[in-house]
Design goal:
Shape: globular
Strand order of the largest sheet: 5-4-3-6-7-8
CATH architecture of the largest domain: Up-down Bundle
Strand content: 5-15%
CATH topology of the largest domain: Na+/H+ antiporter like fold
Largest sheet: 6 strands, parallel
Number of domains: 2
CATH class of the largest domain: Mainly Alpha
Helix content: 55-70%
Length: about 550
């Protein structure tokens, strides 16, 4: 069928089919991203039926990468990056070198030259930024030590990939059996390092002051629309400038733009404003990856594809081994998150093929291995999450404390507060002043330590799980406050709590009318919407 190149057609068909197949995947207890990938395969050029413009979809996917990395940078300070430098710098370099050598071995098996095998291995050594970030965010690991290591590892891989892309053109004649132009290589490296230095200085000296000042000015205008436009302009503008003026990848440029803002009081609001667009365009990234895949390679080159896929998994195993030697706790979670390949692998493969230092037959193998690794990644992550929590790499290092088992509360006639953020904290404080017995359920990083220090009885865990709710003794509770802002998760909690105790009064919070109706339909007795309560309080004051 004729390719549909209209922007609106790409958005309607791409997002619509991703929604349908993502929902199907969710119903089959599979990650939605599997459905997104299948949507891409369905509308790609290698399958019959409806097709959409592949180039346009890839450009839209790049917007998703920019917004995703900008959001990551907003929660990742330079101090976080420096805190893991001793692990990620040598680790990422060694890991890419090890996978490169495996590529040389595979190239020997495929009867390629050593140089072609090396480039092939480097293409298989770079993890997908989008997949890693989605995996960490879904499991709330972004702010954990393992999350910082994974993000830092990606940053180092990005920088190394930029260097590889720079040195490949002047090295190409030598790699193909000719002579190396040492002068051109030195000039290219000097030019690249110079541009990177200028970019770093501009971001640190000028951007660190100019960007937050501009956003503060826009915030004081009181226009949410202008503030949202300012956030998007910063993210897209810095990423574009980084790529086209300084030779830095768009993902890395967006990451640094977010990191510059991370210390600003407006960083949280900036993250909230970019979230809706970020999620939508991130979906298009998976659709675009699916479009690149030709299913025929599964039948035409099964052995070669299996070898390629094995090298990708071996890269994850290498990361696990390196982290294990360095004494990182639970290295499997970090290794699994990085055990796949994506956007930068495709870029390197395109450059290598264009220069003649990578055989054209390597490209479908790289794409196929990418699809398979992304498909398998959620399953590997689930298996790694079940690893022993007391796993320690260094036998001489102090063993971490085992995660305590969930102990059922002995309270009766008590209030249960789900979430100990700004709203839940205020509820708990008022209950304490009233002298009423209460129990807090929270699963955030460091929550157990804070609650223990405050002398508050609590259960650490996700309140949407049956084990945690059962331990809260809802049958004997007086009232349940669901104070978390996520409406879907809150709905699961309300529904399960209502089944556990049909007579239990349940109070929840919401931000929109649809969320109010959703929570009420699932069994909440009272749903408080912040905007309504603010308006009510303001009107009461005016009547006084």
């Amino acid at each position: 069928m004729e390719e549909n190149s209209s922007l609106i057609i790409v958005l309607v068909i791409g997002l619509g089919l991703a929604f349908i197949l993502g929902t199907v995947a969710q119903r089959l207890r599979m990650p939605p991203l599997v459905g997104y990938l299948m949507a891409g395969v369905a509308v790609g050029p290698f399958t019959p039926g409806v097709r959409v413009d592949q180039g346009l979809t890839l450009q839209l996917a790049e917007v998703g990468v920019i917004l995703l990395m900008f959001g990551v940078g907003l929660h990742f300070s330079p101090r976080d990056l420096m805190s893991v430098r001793r692990v990620v710098i040598p680790g990422a370099i060694l890991q890419m070198a090890m996978v490169g050598l495996l590529g040389v071995g595979a190239g020997w098996w495929f009867e390629w030259t050593m140089a072609q095998g090396l480039v092939f291995g480097l293409c298989l050594s770079v993890a997908s930024t989008v997949v890693v970030m989605r995996a960490l965010a879904d499991r709330r690991l972004m702010d954990s030590e393992r999350g910082r290591i994974a993000i830092g590892w990606l940053v180092v891989q990005d920088l190394l990939t930029v260097l590889v892309l720079v040195v490949l053109p002047p090295l190409a004649p030598a790699l193909k059996g000719g002579t190396m132009n040492a002068e051109a290589l030195a000039e290219a490296l000097g030019f690249t390092f110079g541009k990177l230095a200028i970019f770093g200085v501009l971001m640190w000296v000028i951007g660190r002051r100019a960007i937050p000042s501009m956003l503060h000015y826009i915030a004081h205008t009181g226009s949410r629309e202008l503030f949202r436009l300012a956030v998007l302009s910063v993210a897209l503008g810095v990423a574009f400038a980084a790529a086209h003026l300084f030779g830095v990848s768009i993902a890395l440029g967006a990451f640094f733009a977010g990191m510059i803002l991370s210390g600003s009081p407006l960083s949280q609001r900036a993250a909230e404003e970019s979230l809706p667009l970020r999620d939508a365009f991130a979906v298009l990234f998976f659709v675009s990856v699916g479009m690149l895949f030709n299913p025929v390679v599964l039948l035409s080159e099964p052995i070669a594809l299996a070898i390629t896929f094995a090298i990708v998994l071996a890269g994850g195993l290498a990361i696990w081994g390196l982290l294990h030697v360095m004494g990182v706790q639970q290295p499997a979670l970090v290794a699994v998150s990085l055990a796949q390949i994506g956007e930068f692998s495709f870029i390197m493969a395109d450059v290598g093929t264009g220069l003649g230092v990578l055989p054209p037959a390597a490209r479908p193998l790289i794409l196929g291995a990418s699809i398979l690794s992304i498909f398998l990644n959620p399953l590997l992550f689930a298996l790694a999450a079940r690893a022993r929590p007391d796993e320690v790499a260094d036998n001489h290092a102090p063993k971490p404390k085992k995660k305590p088992a969930i102990v059922p509360t002995t309270l009766t006639g008590h209030a249960v507060v789900v979430g100990y953020g700004r709203v839940g904290g205020l509820i708990a404080e008022n209950l304490r002043h009233q002298g009423a017995p209460y129990l807090v359920i929270e699963d955030g990083e460091g929550a157990a330590e804070r609650l223990t220090a405050a002398g508050i009885e609590h259960i650490t865990g996700n309140a949407a799980t049956d084990a945690v709710l059962n331990a809260a003794n809802l049958q004997e509770a007086r009232i349940l406050y669901v104070a978390i802002p996520e409406a879907f998760e809150a709905g699961q909690i309300v529904e399960k709590a209502r089944r556990a105790n049909p007579a239990l009064p349940i109070v929840a919070r919401a931000h929109f009318d649809a969320e109010v109706d959703h929570l009420a339909a699932l069994g909440a007795d009272k749903v408080v919407m912040g905007e309504r309560e603010i308006a009510s309080a303001m009107l009461q004051y005016s009547r006084a």
